[in-house]
Amino acid sequence: MRITQGTFSFLPDLTDQQIVSQIDYCITNGWSIGIEHTDDPHPRNSYWEMWDLPMFEVRDPAAILVEIKACRKALPNHYIKVNANNPLRGRETVALSFIVNRPQREPGFRLDRQEVGGRAIQYTIHSYAADKPEGERYDGERTDSGNGRG
Amino acid sequence: MRTTLSSNERYRAGVIPYAKMGYWEPDYIPKDTDVLALFRVTPQDGVDPIEAAAAVAGESSTATWTVVWTDRLTACEVYRAKAYRVDAVPNSPGQYFAYIAYDMDLFEEGSIANLTASIIGNVFGFKAIKALRLEDMRIPVAYLKTFQGPATGIVVERERLDKFGRPLLGATIKPKLGLSGKNYGRVVYEALRGGLDFTKDDENINSQPFMRWSERFLFGMEAVNRAAAATGEIKGHYFNVTAGTMEDMYERAEFAKELGSIIIMIDLVVGYTAIQSMAKWARRNDMILHLHRAGNSAYARQKNHGMNFRVICKWMRMAGVDHLHAGTVVGKLEGDPLMVRGFYDTLREPHTAARLENGLFFEQDWASLRMVMPVASGGIHAGQMHQLLHYLGEDVILQFGGGTIGHPAGIQAGATANRVAVEAIIQARNEGRDYLKEGPEILERAARWCSPLRGALETWKDVTFNYESTDTADFVPVATPTY
After folding, report:
1. Which of A90, A95, B22, B380 is most buried by its number of CB atoms within 10 A?
2. What is the ipTM of this complex?
3. B346-359: pLDDT as tens digits
4. Which CATH architecture has domain A16-106?
């Protein structure tokens, strides 16, 4: 399966040049870029690991691409996404969020059903990958789970 | 000018003109705490427009048809609404814009019902006027702060869904009536699985003999969760909890919550108080509240009588809904582009300036009330995506129906076409392309690798709804000369 979280998951994977264009748009709007990664892509996992702090001062999209590449190199089989943070009063949330790296094989999710009273069912979404310990969830992965920046 | 009567003359038993009773004050300067209303007044032949405006002020506040001495037991000058300005409507003989100010203490805190009982109460049946339309209101910050506002709001909705930077996509299940619960859930599953974020009950699907409400909820949640597991995305179906009594609505809403639904829906026809009650319930229960504007066109569409939809937008933001249908511009339902812009800004801006060409007569500070997500629904399809983004922006739900379900290759294909189209146009916009002009080309290019999009474009490429709008601006923007 292909997880379709993020703004552009229905398009073919973005090229680095296309990623730079999107980052340029974000920076032009005054949004700061943060890179995040995870091996637990549950749809309600709100807190992916941060690849360092959002880059508030960086105005050069190419410099952010360097960081994306470093993150990919350290964690080739993690999901990696780019978040743009908009600090505008009344928004103060993410303005754009898209995946820039995904594991070679995406096992997806199982839907667990617990029959309860009447005809009702309680549902739980279970990530197959999360059956393994953190850091060992996808093939060919390093065993340490840090952000790879030492 | 204002006519001042002595106390003896003013309170002599009998009938005197409203303008002389204190309801016309051309030199009145509205206070920041006043509620302001703008009415389009069409007086009966021979009735002076100022007297008609004063009558509207009087009948929507303290007045009755004759002088009453009991006024003198009150601070009646404060409680009288004041017509303070009357302008002829451009290019509309016999119609006048009447500006009226109301002291805030005329209205109960946090009650749309009380506000509307005055503003659109008896006054609309008043014989001295042929027709009356409430065009706009300015709600003072102090009064706004007595309302909850949207239970969830655009920001928190996006954070809960983890969906940013693009319009959300939905589809209304069709046929709207007649499907069994199991068949209904099939359509929900296919549409969500194919790429939509939301599916929706239609306004008139409640609990009919062919499908009782809990049957729909049970099968619907199976569909929602199956689609979420298949895609790794959060999905939702707006379960319409509209019912004959509040008790029934609460029962249905509670059941939707127990089943794990993230969103419920109500119809505008349930009434203002019921809407406010459900908004409070939604805030308490972390539920997104979708409002379908069923019924509004019965009184909002004609230009001379009723009320403008922008006023409904204001009241519903105060009442506390999270989604409101507000027009598509390009679809099958009424919606002039400039007017729709005014509705959308009213729902989702922190502050709106007065802009006559958009029908916004007053500046409005929203006092940090959360933003309502507008919903564009009715006759839209993937081939219009560039126009939809241009007219409606990205904080909107594009609600397809036939434009998903009617796809020749099936519902999933229809949903995929919608999603690929929106992502391709957003990508192009962000890359700085002139996406409105190049839209057809951008979509054609995506259709080369996406056969569902190709099918959608081929099926609906020539479908447009070019009819004259009835609700249009009275003012045309003119360029300010530069020197």
Report:
1. B380
2. 0.92
3. 999 999 999 999 99
4. 2-Layer Sandwich (3.30)
